[in-house]
Every structure is written in structure tokens, then in C-alpha cells.
Amino acid sequence: MAKKTKRLAPTLPRGFVDRDAVEIASLEQMFHRIRSVYERYGFDPVETPLFEYTESLGKFLPDTDRPNAGVFSLQDDDEKWLSLRYDLTAPLARYFAQNYDALPKPYRSYRQGYVFRNEKPGPGRFRQFMQFDADSVGAPDPAADAEMCMMMADVMDELGLGGKFIIRVNNRKVLDGVLAAAGLADQPETSLTVLRAIDKMDRLGEDGVKLLLGAGRKDESGDFTEGAGLDEAQIARILAYVTADADADKMFDVLAAQVEDSEAGAQGVAELKEMQALFDAAGYARDKIKIDPSVVRGLEYYTGPVFEAELTFPVTNEKGQTVVFGSVGGGGRYDGLVSRFRPEPVPATGFSIGVSRLAHALQLVGELDVTEKQGPVVVLIMDKDQIASYQAMVAELRQAGVRAELYLGASKNMAKQMKYADKRNAPAVIIEGSQEREAGEVQVKDLVAGKIASETITSNEEWRAARPAQVSVKRGDLVAHIKSLLETDSADGE
Questions:
Q1: What's the family (predicted)?
Q2: CB 131 within 8 Å of CB 351
């Protein structure tokens, strides 16, 4: 009895996904539009490798004591640890420092690529995903941060999301100044609880945040979240800060009052004020780019202005609740990252787009084409000894700019070849048997026509009168006929 061969199960690793031609093509549409905005602003592409030395990725990893925690890592043959990049910013910092003398300052670049997180996967949470970043390294002034916000707004407009987004802006220095004025500068755990409460402002409102700043809050399910335990004066200061944007004309005065004598806080308020003046001068209204004190991002990472792109149209979440779509990207100033490699200070600012989340949003609003791409014209093989003749047809079509292929499957059964053409979403097939060859003709079978006809034409007679599904064409007229057919299909499909 023959021993059975044990076959591997074709299993995808947890937290990873395959992408088919339709998804790849739809993402490329989005990437093209994003790139067009980046390059309009004078940013150039750069590409860094998937692997970096683990020490180059630095303290911003989840766990620096164990190189295999939070990142995918391996040891090279020289015993140095390598890690798959965790984001696109740390590799940029290494690249800039390594090429410091050759690069212009500031260095304006954008990058698109996969990043990797060695974390437990879950719904919407993957271990490999794509980001699309833009950064300006060596630009110290708030004008560079303002430009990032304006570029984010222009990207959203370019993607067809005008009127459906807001760029929200804050400053880490102002946050630190308010915490210091509230007497929390030396209380990191309490400060973190306060910042988490502030971050819930858009969801819980002022009353909910007030409870979280005090003794705590019980939600609708009865679950209790312990609060920061602040006194009334501290709570009043934090709430005055968080709601400072309620009156745009007085906002900066309110912010200045809440940071009191904090030099860093006052500097942060001044930076926000300068950025607002630039937004106004460039014509970005406050319903497009808004100073919002409740924005809290990457507290161990950002050193100045922070910003977030939030989509404001409603969607239904997994609990059946109507909520706004939310954040699709963000960033800020990170003046400490590049300086790990250089003796001199190197200021930097940038933002990152979450590609999958943004693509999902564009699908919801009908701004991303996820229809199956039209396949190639397929030349069928009717006579095995005429393959050279069939290949000549394919070559002529390709030279004329028509996507075409010769059927190269194992079966020479016509029905199976037609089934293959259907699976390839071919617009047409070309058939040449011995009778056609003797007559100097080919048969062209229009596969798209039937799909369009089934939606618009009610009778077979009407369809045959309008456009026959299969016609005989002189061999010398094949290319012209196919090009005409494809142009007609394109017009009918619009």
C-alpha cells in the first residue's frame, strides 16, 4: 500500500492579510492622489529598508529591554539584532543622520510602505500594515508644523473628502504647562490619567471629563473608571483649558491664563497663535483646521505641535451606535528623535496616514473604485500547430497598447478556455479555427457586451440589432476592431 504524502495546509499567519488585484489597484488610485499633493508641496520620495538595527529604532519601541517584544527581530551572523521597522519615522531619522552632509536642510520627504508590530492581532488590528508619511527634518519653526496641517487638509480634499473632515491641532508644550500650573508636574501617573480623560472630551463631553478628573465615572453598563482624584481648583483649570476653543476670539488668552508662569507653556501658546495666523493667511477656515486643546497624541514622542486628521461623517460601529468615523492619521513635532544620532539639535515634524483605515473611509463615501479591473483580451488556441500564428495576434495587440494574452493553460477544450477568459474578466476573446484561417478572418466574441446588455436591453432581438455578441473580422482589421470595441465598452461602462 502506497504511503500517503502529508501535505501542508495553506494557512495565513495570524495578523497578516493577502491582497488581490482589485484591492491593490484601488489603493494605487489613493496613493497617486496623495503623492500628487505631497509633490505639489515640494516633498520628494525616499525609501528605506524593511529591516533596521534594533538599537536604531530606539526607545520608542514598546519594550527596549527585550528586542523581540513588540517587534519582529532576529540576530544577524555578526550577532547584531535586526528588527522589522515599527514605523516609517525612526528609519527616516537614521537615513537623515547617515546622509546628513549630502541632504538639504530642511529635508522634505515622503515614504510609503509596510510596518510591522509583533502584537496580538484582533479585529482591524494587524501585525503588518501600511503607512504613508511626510516629514520635514531640520525645520525648527511652527510654520513647518502649520504646513503639515495644511498639506493634510489638501490631501483630504484631493481624496474627495471635502466637508467631511477636520484637522485638529494642539501643542504638547501647552499641555505640559497646564499640568505644571495644576501642580502635577512631578506626578506622572496622575498626569497620565488626566491626559486620558482629556482625550475622551469628544466622546464624553465636559461633564464626563469632569467626572474622570475627579473621583471617577460609571458608564451605561455600570463599569466604573477610577478618576485622577484632582481637587476642585485643579479640575476647574483643566476644564478651562480643554474648553478654551469654545470662544475662538478669546482662546489664546484663556490658554495663556491656564499655563500661568510656565515658560514652555507660554511658548506653546505662542506657537499655536502663530500657526493660526498662517492658517488664516492661507485661507484655511476653522471648520477645516482647528486649534483643539483636547488633542492628545504620543506623549513620549512629540515635543511641540501635534495634529490629527479626523473624518466627521457618521458611521455605525460594532455596537450599532452612530458615531463619527474618526482619525485616519496624525503627527506632530518630534525634535528628539534625529538628535540621538547627531551632536547638534535636529528639529523635525511630520505626519502619518493610516492607509487601510483611510481606504475604508473612501470606500464608504464612494471615492475609491473597488470594481474588478478589466482583464486582457484572450486569444484562444484552436489548433496546437498554429500557436505561432496566435502569438503573432497577441504581439500585434500588445504593440498597439492593448492588454492581451495567449491562453497557455493545459486544456485546449474551447468551453474551458472560455471559462478561463470569464474568470480573467476578459473584454473579448479571439477565435481562429481552420475555416477562419482559410477565409483570412477571425471571430471576435464580445464578453463585456452581454453584461451591459443584461442591464439595459430587454430583448435578444433588440440586443442583436444594437450590437452582435460575435462577429467575423478580417485578420488585417483585428487590432482596429479590438481597439474600437474596447473604446465602446469604456464609454458604455461610464
A1: Belongs to the class-II aminoacyl-tRNA synthetase family.
A2: no
Q: How does DSSP classify residue 60?
A: G
Rounded Cα distance, 311 and 327, in Å = 6
Which cell goes with 184?
A: 502635577
pLDDT, one tens digit per residue, over 137-186 is 999 999 999 999 999 999 999 999 999 999 999 999 999 999 999 998 88
Q: Check whether 136 has a pLDDT greater than 70.
A: yes
Same domain, 192 and 118: yes
The DSSP-derived string for 323-374 is EEEEEEEEEEE-TTSGGGT-SS---EEEEEEEHHHHHHHHHHTT-S--SPPP
CA dist 251 and 269 (Å) reads 10
Scanning 41-167, the segments in alpha helix (DSSP H) are: 54-57, 89-98, 142-158
Q: Distance (Å, rounded) from C-alpha 164 to C-alpha 157? A: 9
Q: How far apart, in whole angstroms, are the C-alpha atoms of residue 177 and residue 258?
A: 8
Name the residue range of residue 50's domain: 21-364
Q: Are residues 80 and 202 both part of a single domain?
A: yes
Tell me if 267 is assigned to some domain. Answer: yes
| Cα 1 → chain centroid | 55
Average pLDDT over residues 234-251: 91
Q: Hey, what long-range contacts does 99-107 have (CB within 8 A, 24 or more apart)?
A: 100/342, 105/137, 105/138, 106/136, 106/137, 106/138, 106/139, 106/144, 107/136, 107/137, 107/138
Contact 228, 190 (CB under 8 A): yes
Sheet of 51-53: strand order equals: 51-53, 81-84, 73-75
106 preceded by a cis bond (ω within 30 of 0): yes
CATH number at residue 33: 3.30.930.10
In sequence order, the 6+-apart residues with CB closer than 8 A to the CB of 333 are 145, 172, 302, 303, 304, 305, 306, 347, 348, 349
* pTM for this model (two decimals): 0.85
Handedness of CA 430, 468, 401, 20 (dihedral sign): negative
The answer to whether residues 118 and 226 belong to one domain is: yes
The whole-number average pLDDT for the span 302-318 is: 88
Q: What pLDDT is stored for residue 373 in this prediction?
A: 83
Residues 6+ apart with CB under 8 A from 351: 133, 134, 135, 148, 151, 152, 307, 309, 329, 330, 331, 332
**Residue 91: inside a domain, yes or no?**
yes
| CA–CA distance, 391 with 241 (Å, rounded to integer) | 73
